[in-house]
Write a structure and sequence with these properties.
A 3-stranded mixed sheet has the order 1-3-2. The protein is mostly helical. The protein is 68% helix and 3% strand. The chain has one domain. The longest helix has 26 residues.
Length: 315
Amino acid sequence: MFFINAGKGAHHWWLFVAGALVVSLGYIIGQIPMSLVLTYKISKDPALDSSDLIEFSENLDFEKFGISTNFGLVLSLLIFVTALAFLYFVVFVFHKRNFTSLINYVERVDWKRFFWGFGVWFSISLFMEIISYYLSPENYEYVAPGREYFLLLLICVIMLPLQTSFEELFFRGYLMQTIGYHTRSKWLAMLVISFLFMSIHLANPEIEQYGTINMVIYYFASGLILAFITIMDDRLELAMGIHFANNFFGATLVTYEGAALRTNSLYKVHEINPQMMVIGFALVAVVFMVLASRRFHWQSIGKSFKWVDPIIKTL
């Protein structure tokens, strides 16, 4: 039922192409505030020049420009807030659909499902991190929280869910629904959208820090797992909760060198094994899916991925 939402309203294939381009434009426009701030900082500091912008694109080090990590985080998240607004415009104006049709067939957000996904994923991740800490406590550096940390919490509560929700709504909502509806294949939709999700993360600083192959596997696996959960649950709330939990955990509790979200979290890990990061993510996902399948009574994989043509009134 989740996929047939792409057949509601105006759903010509070229509208989806145009919609994706408009959302991409929103993403670019959202970078203007950051660009203006960085340009201003360069103009005021003779020690900085355009080469520092190139380096910034690789490490996202705001502090080199005299910008606090919290303000840098706000500038980074504004990009996704703008893109989310453009996505809303595309769904409402181009397709004449309710925005919540990107989330589920009944077009009402199940907040209990969202917070269940957030809470369970966060709890499993915390359990795994505690095990890692006791195995290698010397790899963790504790940073005593101050005023800046509580401001970080506020930013993450208000703005971070907008960033994670945009990625879910656009990739596993708008695009995956579209690909599945027009190809009549949920398997193909899952694979294509996981590849696209991986591709847009190739600009993240983790690529430089931990190697292209390692991070390509990680990002593709992450996208694949979130898409699989969305198809099995036939709705998007669990994936939205998971994505928020994952990023909130990394931004506020445990971060590492080269992270896409550079924040002053409570702990900083000095060395990361990218292979173990993939394995750890997969373990968390397996436990989560076992619990979710029992909690929400998922159907078999065969039934969940089988395409059934609906009868929908269209414009």
